Amino acid sequence: MAKLIMIVDDSASLRQVVGLTLKDAGYDVLEGADGSDALSKLKGQKVHLIISDVNMPNMDGIAFVREVKQLPNYRFTPIIMLTTESQEEKKRQGQEAGARAWLVKPFKPQLLLTAVQKLVLP
């Protein structure tokens, strides 16, 4: 059974590019348009990894990570932040919220897949 990875980004084109990269590598993909949308789609199913943007409307990536980590089913789900943000302060906030990795856009698909393979839950 393929592992499920959630992509959270307000850019439909970025979700599509990341989604194709992951699908080509054999993963299943669930998409959220922002933090609120993504939370509403989790519904307790097993998600092996989450890739989230930081800057989004309604609920930003850092707030989303904090919310996800409050949910018992997702407390240990690894989260990669994929964002244009590269400031140390933002990275620190992300780590404190529970993010495990930080990739800066534009990203190289192979770099993303390497991070995914390292962090994805068994």
UniProtKB/TrEMBL annotation:
The lineage of its organism: Bacteria, Pseudomonadati, Pseudomonadota, Betaproteobacteria, Burkholderiales. It holds the Pfam family Response_reg. Coiled coil: none annotated. The keyword Metal-binding does not apply. It comes from the Bacteria. The keyword Phosphoprotein applies. It comes from Pseudoduganella namucuonensis. One of its GO terms (biological process) is phosphorelay signal transduction system. The modification 4-aspartylphosphate is found at D53. Residues 4-120 form the Response regulatory domain. SMART domains: REC (SM00448). InterPro entries: Bact_response_regulator (IPR050595), CheY-like_superfamily (IPR011006), Sig_transdc_resp-reg_receiver (IPR001789). Keywords: Phosphoprotein. This is Two-component system, chemotaxis family, response regulator CheY.
